[in-house]
Amino acid sequence: MCQTQVISRHIGRIGRRSFDRRMRIVSPLYVERRGEIARLLNEVDALSERLHDEFPTITEEDYKLFGPELKVVIGTLKSLLKESTSRHELKPYNERMREQIVDLEELDHDIVEFRIKAPKDEHLQRTLASISELDFSKYLD
Q1: Cβ-count burial 73-84 (b if 16+ within 10 Å, e if not)
Q2: In sequence order, what are the residues at sequence separation of 6 or more whose Cβ sits closer than 8 angstroms to the Cβ of residue 54?
Q3: What confidence tier does 129 reach under pLDDT thresholds 50, 70, 90?
Q4: Are 100 and 41 a contacting pair, CB within 8 Å?
Q5: Cα-atom radius of gyration of the chain, to the nearest Å?
Q6: Whole-angstrom Cα distance, residue 63 to residue 118?
Q7: Over the stretch 85-124, which tens digit does the pLDDT of each residue have?
Q8: Per-residue pLDDT at 38
Q9: pLDDT tens digits for 39-49?
Q10: Which residue from 111, 115, 104 is spatially nearest to 78, judged by alpha carbons?
């Protein structure tokens, strides 16, 4: 089992901070807060790295705990990106944010497909078992 509670807290913290930054960006009283955006993006990088590290141990139960929060963070980041594209001072952050959104979406997809659905797919499990029985050593020379 992965460190579900740590991941869940991390996602929750990012979700609250990204929502807060989103509200500041759309505010007419917005004062340039590039440092806050940079910190948020650094936190998203850390979350992504943790999810990559924990990927082999994530279970369906783990995903039930943090999956919905992860989807909220992705949605909030998408909204933040959409709103930040109209802000000239935030343009340098848009590409990095785009890449992070894609990475988190891919991780979310891969967790669902490979850590949750794949172990339940009997046909896939039989195919993998058949492949593992093959002897490829004669092709290595």
Answers
A1: bbebbeebbeeb
A2: 2, 3, 7
A3: confident
A4: yes
A5: 19
A6: 14
A7: 877 777 788 899 999 999 999 999 999 999 999 889 899 8
A8: 80
A9: 888 889 999 99
A10: 104
Q: Which long-range contacts (CB under 8 A, 24 or more apart) does 102-107 make?
A: 103/48, 104/44, 104/47, 104/48, 104/51, 104/70, 104/73, 104/74, 104/77, 105/74, 107/48, 107/51, 107/52, 107/55
**What gap in Å lies between CA 27 and CA 11, rounded to an integer?**
24
Residue 32 in tokens = 């340039």
Give me 111's structure tokens.
């967790």
Can you give the pLDDT at residue 141? 61
How far is 101 from 64, CA to CA, in rounded Å?
20
Site of tokens 């933040």: 80
Place of tokens 């929750």: 12
How does the average pLDDT of the chain come out, rounded? 81
- Give the tens place of pLDDT for each residue, 55-86: 999 999 999 988 998 998 899 889 888 888 87
